[in-house]
Amino acid sequence: MNDILERLAETLEARKGADPQSSYVAKLYAKGTDAILKKVGEEAAETIIAAKGGDSQQIVYETADLWFHTLVMLAHNGLHPNDVLDELARREGLSGIDEKAARQEK
Fold first, then answer.
1. Rounded (5°) CA angle 95-100-104
2. DSSP, res 28
3. Among 77, 62, 64, which residue's Cα sits nearest to residue 28?
4. Dihedral sign, CA of 17, 23, 38, 3?
5. Residue 16 gets which letter from DSSP?
6. pLDDT digits (tens, 9 = 90+) for 63-105
7. pTM value surpassing 0.70
8. Closest-CA residue to 74 (of 19, 16, 4)
9. Which distant-in-sequence residues (6+ apart) come within 8 Å of 84 by Cβ?
10. CB-based contact 60:53 (threshold 8 Å)
11. Residue spans of alpha helices (H) in 32-95
C-alpha cells in the first residue's frame, strides 16, 4: 500500500511546478487552499452518499476520490502521506476514548 501512496506523493509534488493548463492537480494548487478544501468536502459528501446507497463499487470509487483529494491537501500544506501513517501508527493499540481524552487535556 505504501508504494502507491509514495508514487502519488511524488506525482503531487511534481505537479506543484506544472502548468495549470496541463494538469488538474496543478490547477487545484493554483486555485489555492479554499478550492482544494472545497473538493475534499465535495468528495466526502459523495463518499457518504455512496455509503448510504450501499453499492460497494461506488463506495470504493468515491473513497478513492476522497483519499486522492486529501493527498492533494496534504501536499499543498507541505505534508506527506507518511505523516498521517505515522500518526496512525502512534495511535495503534490505544483506546480511542483514552486518545481523545488525552487530546482534550492539552
1. 145
2. H
3. 77
4. negative
5. T
6. 999 999 999 999 999 999 999 999 999 998 877 777 677 777 7
7. yes
8. 16
9. 74
10. no
11. 33-53, 56-76, 81-91
